[in-house]
Amino acid sequence: MLGNIIVQYFLEGGPVMWPILVCALVAVAVLGERCLWWWRESRKRDPRKLEQILAALENADVPAATKLAEGSEDPVIRMIYRGLSHVNTSLQGALQLAAGIELERAGKYLTVMDTLVTLAPLLGLLGTVTGLMRAFLSVGGAELAVAKVTGGIGEALIATACGLGIAIISLIPYNYFNGKIARLQFELETAATNVEVMVEAKRPAAGQ
């Protein structure tokens, strides 16, 4: 029963409902993928090992810190490992490159969600315009068909509601994921700064 009602409203929304449906399916797919990705990343975090690595660096034991970081799936520790692997060449550059890779992975598909937030209401607006055009063309006809007028107005309202609904549903997780990325960026920058400071501070002592 409910399915029939949904299909009926979908068909009454006009041709523009098909691209709106595509937007809805893409939004659901991206949302599901990103939720699963962040859930998996949260299980990979290892703050205890991170503390051990920083403690080893504080004691100027770079080999021990590198060994602790090797093979970890924590994004912050992965960045530190890549940096320590180039400690004698370009520590800062290696850390920046590794942090960029981690942020790129975290921001994957967010441009798609950003596009959907803008595109869905525009498609709804397009449906509004075509629906009103249909209604006004019916008014201007030789015979006033009430069904055609109300059908055009219904098409306009359905398309607008669906477009706005997709945008609203996409906007909330989009902002949430952006907040998660900002938090990850802060953690990466903080860890990179700590590593640089500790390594540079111990270098003169190690050379004596």
User: Ranges with pLDDT <50 over ≥5 residues?
Assistant: none
What is the mean pLDDT?
87
* Rg from Cα: 27 Å
Q: How much helical structure, as a percent, in the residues?
A: over 70%
Derived structural class: mainly alpha
The SSE order reads: HHHHHHHH
Strand content: under 5%
Oligomer: single chain
Biggest β-sheet, characterized? none
Anisotropy-based shape: rod-shaped
Distance between the termini: 82 Å
What is the strand tally? 0
Number of helices: 8
Short key terms for the protein model shown above:
208 residues; mainly alpha; 85% helix; rod-shaped
Overview in brief:
With 208 residues, the chain is mostly helical. Helix content is 85%, strand content 0%. α2 runs antiparallel to α7, α5 (75-84) packs antiparallel against α6 and α6 (91-106) packs antiparallel against α8 (146-207).
Notes on the structure:
29% of the residues are buried. The chain has a domain at 19-126 and 176-203. It has helices at 2-12, 17-44, 47-58, 62-69, 75-84, 91-106, 110-139, 146-207. It is 85% helix and 0% strand. The protein has 208 residues and is mainly α. The chain is built from eight helices and no strands. It is rod-shaped and about 85 Å long.
Secondary structure topology:
Layout: H1 2-12, H2 17-44, H3 47-58, H4 62-69, H5 75-84, H6 91-106, H7 110-139, H8 146-207
Helix pairs in contact: 2-7, 2-8, 3-4, 4-5, 5-6, 5-8, 6-8, 7-8
